[in-house]
Amino acid sequence: MKASLHHRVRVVVLGGGTAGWMTAAGLAKLLPDHAQVTLIESEDIGIVGVGEATLPHIRAFVEKLGIDEAAFMKATHATYKLGIDFRDFGALGTSYIHPFGSFGEEVAGVGFHHWWLDQARRGKAGPLGDYSLAVAAAQANRFRPPAQDQSLASTYGYAYQFDATLFGPFMRSFGMANGVIRHEGRVVSVERSGVDGDVTALILSDGRRIEGDLFVDCSGFRSLLLGETLDESWEDWSEWLPCDRAAAMPCAHVLGAPLRPYTTATAMPAGWRWQIPLQHRMGNGYVFSSAHLSEDEACTAIAAAAEGEALADPRVLRFRAGRRRRSWSRNVVAVGLASGFLEPLESTSIYLSQMAITYLIELFPLGGHCDPRDRDEFNRLVDMEYDRVRDFLILHYHATTRSDSPFWNHVRTMQVPDSLTDKLALWRDAARIEKYSDGLFYDASWFAVYVGQGMVPQAYDKRTALADPARVGRAFDALRKAIADEVAAMPGHADFLGHEAARLASAA
Ligand SMILES: Cc1cc2nc3c(=O)[nH]c(=O)nc-3n(C[C@H](O)[C@H](O)[C@H](O)COP(=O)(O)OP(=O)(O)OC[C@H]3O[C@@H](n4cnc5c(N)ncnc54)[C@H](O)[C@@H]3O)c2cc1C
C-alpha cells in the first residue's frame, strides 16, 4: 500500500449483500477523505437474502450514517422489535422473552436478579417478565420508543425486523449517493503481488481489472478472498452448534392477528423455527441439523407450521457454524458471512458485520499504511465478539431438560466450551453472571435465558437476607404496577407504525 495521509485508500468491496453494502456505505459516508470505495456484485450469484431480525445496535449505525429512521423503515417494510420470545427451549410447554432491556434495578449494591431469586424462593415473585418493561410491552403487542431520560420508560431498547431483500437495495442507493462506485460482474480471478502476497486486483469475467489497496471480502459463504485465495483456516464450531441448514418460507399475516413487536423462536425436534413479523408478511424458517432431519422433512415441517398463506415455496440454505481464524489477513478484511457464521437464534449476524465495520473504521489504514498491530487488534476484537455470541447461543440448547428427540438429547448432554462451563458454574453455585464490558449480552440477557430455561441456582447473594422481605415484596409490587401502567399508556405496535408512516407522508 502507498503510505501518505493524503492518499485516499482504494477500497474494493467484493459482494453486494447486506455485509457488502453496509461496509461500502459506512466507509464512504464516514471516511470520505480517506477511502475511495468501489463495490463489485454479481446478480448471477445473488445474495443470501434472509436476515430479517436485528439487534438494537443497528440503530446507532442507521443514525451515524444520517439515515432517517422512518424513511428507512418504510423502504424496508420494517417493524419494531423488543426482543425474542423463546418457546419450548428449556422444556416443552415453557416460554420466556429475552428482552432488549433491563429487569428491575440494583438495590444496595445487589443486582435485581438476586432479589428476584429471593422473592421467588419465598413464593412471592411474579413471573420474571413482569419486571421488564420491554417484556410487558411485547406481550401486550404495544410499542413506543423509549424515553431519553432516567425514568422507567427509558429502561429498554428496540431493533428492527426488516425485509432483507429490500435492505440491500436501500443501502445500495445510499452508498452510491455517497460516492460508492459499483461494478456488476463476476470475479473470476484474483491477482496478488509477487513481493508480499497482498491482493492487488480482481479480474471480472469480461476482463475488467479492478485494482485496490485494501480489499473487503463480503462474498458470502464462499469467502472468495480470505478463505479461497488467502486460505485462512476455518475454526469449526459445529460440535456445539450442530444446526447447519435452514428451510425459509414467507407467508401472509393471519387476518386479524396482532402485529407482534418481537421475533418468535420455537424449538422443534431437530432445531428451532423463527417467525419474524414484517409490515407486509411473516418471515418463517426452520433452522435444523441435517444429521437429525432431511431437507425435505424440514420443508414439510415449516410449510405445516407457517400460520398464514404461503407466499413462496420453502428454500433451503446450507451453512456451518464457525469463523475464519483471522478476519483480517494481509490487505484483506472479511465482513459478514465471508468471515464466519453463527446461526440466527439471537439475530446476531448483521450485528457482527456492523461491529467489524465499526472496528475497521476505527483501525482504518489511513493513507494506505497498514500497521500489523492494528490488524491484530481488529482480529482480537472480532474474535471476542464471535466468542461471546457462540457461548450465549450454546446456552439455549444445552440448558434444557428436553429428552424427546435425538437432537435435544445430543445438545443437552454434549461437552460445551470451557468458557461456557465456567459461566454455568458461576450461575449454578452463586447466581453470579460473568462480568464483561465489551461485546454482546450483559447480565440481563444471561439472567433472562438462565431463568427462562429453568436453571435454578443453588445460592444467591447473602446480602438479600439483611433486608426485610416484606418491604422488598412491596417494592416488587410497586414496580410491577408501574410497568403495567406504562404499558397501558403505550399505543399498539401496528398503530404506532401507522402513525409514523402518516408523519413521514405529511412531512414529504
Ligand atoms: C438461514 C439464515 C437466517 C438468517 N437470519 C438472520 C437474522 O435474523 N438476523 C441477522 O442479523 N442475520 C441473519 N442471517 C445472516 C444474514 O443473512 C447475513 O449476515 C447477511 O445476509 C450478510 O450476508 P453477506 O452479505 O455476507 O453475504 P451474501 O448475501 O451471500 O452476499 C454475497 C455477495 O457476494 C457476491 N459475490 C460472491 N461471489 C462473487 C463473485 N465471484 N463475483 C462477484 N460477486 C460475488 C454476491 O453476488 C453477493 O452480492 C441469517 C442467515 C441465514 C443463512
Structural notes for this entry:
The protein is an alpha+beta fold. Among the domains are: 9-50 and 163-234 and 325-388, FAD/NAD(P)-binding domain (3-Layer(bba) Sandwich), CATH 3.50.50; 104-156 and 417-488, no CATH class. Helix content is 36%, strand content 18%. The protein has 15 helices and 21 strands. The strands form five sheets. Strands 5-4-14-15-16-13-17 form a seven-stranded mixed β-sheet. It has a six-stranded mixed β-sheet with strand order 7-2-1-11-20-19. Helix 1 (18-30) runs parallel beside helix 6 and helix 1 (18-30) runs parallel beside helix 9 (349-362). The mean pLDDT is 95. Flavin-adenine dinucleotide binds at residues 14-20, 40-42, 45-48, 50-54, 186-187, 218-220, 222, 224, 246, 248, 285, 317, 319, 336-338, 344, 347, 349-350, 353. Flavin-adenine dinucleotide is lined by residues 14-20, 40-42, 45-48, 50-54, 186-187, 218-220, 222, 224, 246, 248, 285, 317, 319, 336-338, 344, 347, 349-350, 353.
Question: Can you identify the CATH superfamily of the domain at 9-50 and 163-234 and 325-388?
Answer: FAD/NAD(P)-binding domain
Ions, cofactors and other bound molecules:
flavin-adenine dinucleotide
Helical content class: 25-40%
Poorly predicted regions: none
State Rg.
Answer: 24 Å
Distance between the termini: 45 Å
Mean residue pLDDT: 95
